[in-house]
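New to this. Comment on this protein:
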Amino acid sequence: MSREQRSGFERQYDAAYHEFEALRKKNTRISACGQEFVLADNVTKALMKQSPARSDGYDHDLHRLGHTAYHRENSAPPQMMKHEYQEYLLVFYTLLDIGAPSLVHQFRDSGRNSDFLPIDMVDLKRNIDPPSDFENFHQKFYDRQFAWCPIKLELGMCRKFHRSISPFSRKAKMEPYRDDAGARHNNANLYTIEVLEELVGPNLRTKMSSARFESFDSGIDGNHSKSWGYRFALKQFEYHKYDQFSNETRMLKNLNNQDGMIQYIGWFQSYEPDGEGGFHEYYNILLELAEFDFYTAIREQSPPISFQEIHGFWNTMSDIASALASIHTVTLDGQDYLTWHGDIKPENILRVNDCFKLADPGEASMSMKSPGMSRPQRTATFGGTRTYEKAIYWNNSNSNLPQVDQTSDVWSLGCVLSVAATYVVLGTQGVLIYNRLRRQEISCREDNGNIDDTFHDGSRVLPEVTDWHKYLREATRKTDAFSAAVLDMIDAHMLVKAGERWTAQQVCAKFAEIFRNSEPQDTEVPDALQEVLQSINSDQLALKYEQRLGIKRVNSTDTADKPRTAESLPDAGSKFKSRQELLEQDILPTAQRSQNRPGSIRQSRRPSSNFGTISSSEARYRMTGQSAPYSRRTSDAQPPALRPPISSSQTLSSVSVHHRSPVTAWMVRTELEKKGTKWSRSMRSFSSFLKPQPASMKGKGATTLQLAELDAKLERAFKDRDIVYLIDNGSTMAPHWAEATHLIEVLVWRSLGYDDNGMEIYFTDADTDPTAKVKESPDQTVKEFLNAMRVAAPKSVKSSTVKTTIQPELERIINQYTRAKTSKMQPRKKTIIILTDGIWEGMNNEYTLDTYLMSTLSSLRDLHGDLAHIKPGQLPGQHDIEKIRPVTIQFVQFGQNQRATDRLRRLDDELKLNGYPYVSL
C-alpha cells in the first residue's frame, strides 16, 4: 500500500473517529456514584444510520471505522469482516477509546465478545497479545471497558457483577420514620433510583410501564434534552448481611405476582465506590416503587370526610386483608405452601396506584401444607415489630422461638385497622393520642418485657384499646357508615385469642358484607364546590409528591401547570401575626378525595421515595450522657426504665415523662471522696500517712433510695464474676489517655470489694511493658491500676505508631473462660469493660469483630447446652445463655469519631438481626 493510500485511510479514520468521539461524549452520563458510563446502543444506532448521499463506498460510519482502522496500518485484507462486528461492538468501542481498534480480531479469535465484558485481568493477559510497542495495553483496556458495559436492569435478573457500573442516574436514600421516634436501624438501606430507559430491558419496561417518567437528561457535553427513565426501589444489603438478603429474596420470589404484594423485579450483586478509592460489595433487591406508606398517609393527608371518601378509604384497607389471604396459601410447582408474613405494620403497607399493597417479607416464613390436620398448622418465627405482634412475643427474649399459626398475622392486621379507624374518626392527632394512651398503660406494668408499645397486656388485648374503640364509635361522623362495623370486627374476631381469631379469608368476607350493607348517601354539596375541593386537593397532592421525591416534573417550569402555593396567592391582608401564620400553613390533601377524579394527580404521578421501613426492631429510648466517654449498656446490668410509672388517673394532656439524670464520672468521684476513703498507713507509701486512701464503697452508697437501688444493682451485676478491664493503648488513644486514666480510677475505686479475688487489667498493644499489670488479690489498691495506666500509656512519637487491633487480646481473655469451662473446675464468669476510641486502625476488615463475636457466642451456647435445635434422641436439658451470662462486654468510647460510634452501635444493635436475639453489648 502506497504512502498516499495509507494517508487517505488515515484521514478517513480520523474523520470517522472524531464523529465517534462526539457521539461518545453526547451519550456519556455520570452515575449517582460518580462513575462515567456510555449509552452504547445510542452510539451504535447513530453510527449505523444509513445515508443515501454517501459517496465513500461505506454502508455507514461503523463500517468506515472498522475498515479504515485496519487499513491505515495494513494493506492486507481486514481480519474481521463488517458483519462480524455486531457481536464485538463493545470490545471495539473500548479499543477505539485506547487507540487499538485493529486488535478486535484477537478478541474474536479467543471467543471474548461483548457479552464477556467486563473481562478480568487474568483472562485478558492470557488471551490477548498486544503489540510490543503498546505500553500497558491490558491495564488500559481493563479500566476503560467498564464505561461501555453498565449494569442493565432486567425482569427476573439474578446475577453477580464484578465492578460493573450501577446505572443509576439518581439514587436517593429513603429515611423511614415512625411516631417521631427517629429512623430505624435496618438490615438494609432503601433507595429510590432512577434509570435511563436505554438501560432497562424490554420485559421490565412492559411489566413496569407505570414506572416510566419523562425528565431532562444531559450528557457530559452539557446539552440538555428530554428523555425517558424508570423509577424503582432498591433495597441494598452489605455483603455480611447475605443471610438476610438470601431469605428475603427467596420469599419475594415465592410470593411474586400474588395479589396485593409489592412486585419483585430481581436481584444483583454489585460493587460501588467507597469514596476512598476502593469498592464496596453489595447485594441488591430491585422492587416496585410505592407512593408512600400508611404512616405517611396519616401524617400528610387529612382524613376522609364524605361518604364516598370514607368508603374509598376502607375499600383500600380491605385490599390488605385480600393480599394477606392471597399469600397465606401459595401454590408452587403443584404443591401448596402456607405463608406467614410475620411483620404486618403501617410502614409495610404501601400505596401504589391508588391501592395499598403489602411489602417487606423479610420476617416471612413458608411451610409445606400438611393435609388432614385437625388444627391450624404452626411454625416457629421470631416475629416482626413488637407493637403489632400478638401476646406470645411479650417477653420472648431467649432463642426458643414461639410456634404461631397464620392468625398471628390477623392479630397484627387488627392492630393496623384499629389505627386506621382512629385516623378516619379523629385524624392525625387522634392517632398520636391513641399511641400515647397505649404507651402510658404499658409503662405502668412491671412485666412489660422492655416493650414500650403494644395492643395487649401479655395475654389479652389491653382494656384501654377496647375502651378507645367505644370512644371512636361515639365520635364517628354521620357520613361514616363503615368504621363502627370495622371496629366491631376487630373487637370480636381479630384482637382475640388464637382459637377464636378469624382467618384472613373471613376478614375479607366481612369487609364485603360491610360494603354491601352500607347504602350510599345522597349529598347536597353542589358539584361546583366539589370540583373546587378536588382541584385544591390535587394541587396539594402534586406539591407533596414533588417535595417528597425531591425531583421536579418536566413541566414544573411552566407556571400554568404549577400548584398555587400559599406564597403565590394574594396577601391575606392580616394585621395579626397569628392569623397570618394560620392562613399561610400548607393545606393537607384529603384521603380519597381525588381518587375518582379523571386525570387527577393520583392517577398520573409516580411514586415518592417513602417506600416504608425495613427494620423489624423496636424503636428504643436511649439515655444520653453529658460528656464523653460514650457508654454502651451491658447485658449483665440492664438499666432501669427511663420513664417512671404514670398514674392511670392522669389525663393525656397532663402526662409528662421524666428521665433520671445521667450519673457522670465526676459525680461518682465526688461521692467516693466523701465516703470511699479510710486511713491505711503503709511504710511503703509516705502519702498514706498524710491522707486517707481509696477504699471499698460496697454497701456505703445507700444514702438515698436511688443510690441504694444502684448499689444493689452493682452487687447483682458483679456477684461471683471476674471484673476485667481491657484498655485500648493504641496511638489514637493518646489524646484521651488522661481522661481514660481518670475513668479507670473511678471505676476501680467504685468496684473495689465486688470482685472478691481481685480485678484484672490488660492492654491491646502486644508490646506493652510487662510491668503494666496488676496482681489478682482481694487487697488490691487503686494506685496499682493507676501505675499500670502510666506504664502502658501510648507513645506520642510518630515513628512508634501503634495501630489497635482489638480482637487478639479480647479473644485471649474470653478463651480463659472457654478453656476452663471444659475442665473439671467450673470457671468464674467474666465482665469485660473495654475503654477505647473505637477507631481500631489495625483491623483491615470492618466486620472482623462482628464475625468473631458471633462465632464466640455460638461456642458459648454450645458449651452451656443452649441449643437451637435438639436432635432426635438428644436430651433436652437446655439452658438459657441470657440468664447464665457467662461473658458480658461493655464498650466505653472516647472521642467523637462518628465511624467508631457507628461501629460500636452496630455491635450493640445488629447482632440481634444476625440471629443472636439475646445479645446486648
About this structure: The domain at 719-868+877-914 is CATH 3.40.50.410 (Rossmann fold). The mean pLDDT is 75.
